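Table S2 (continued). Query chain:
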Amino acid sequence: MSTKVAASTDPRHLVGSLDKGPDFAGALATGRPGRADGARLMPCEGVPLVLVVAE
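Corresponding output:
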């Protein structure tokens, strides 16, 4: 599944581009932070967004 990058400070992930990353839908479904592929996944309460923070 591809997801759209909404904001980024990483030049490898340009705003508006599509990214095949970890299971973002799983993070949204549980509503709890998780980890995948060397990144922290933090769902944003009330909106269908996941904040991805490199570790």
